[in-house]
Amino acid sequence: GPLFLSFALFLIGTAGVILRRNVLIMLMSIELMLNGANVALVTFSRLWGDTGGQVFSMFVIGVAAAEAAVGLAIVVSIFRSRARADIDQLTTLRD
Length: 95
Description:
With 95 residues, this protein is an all-alpha fold. It contains 3 helices and no strands.
């Protein structure tokens, strides 16, 4: 059930980070990985009757929101200076 969903989300996110070179797709893939981890945390939390996993899942959601905001701000600044956001071309922060 939920653990298979968690594994599938994490696997799709990992494949997106490894196989894609677009920064936006990589950010979305990292979000998928974090959501897969959240599903696993909540599943084990319910399985063991402990609320610690659910509380930690809320912290992960907060970190994911901050990561999305900072990541999108960086991508917007890259798009303003260049026409593309290909990860292979972004070797330095200068240019």
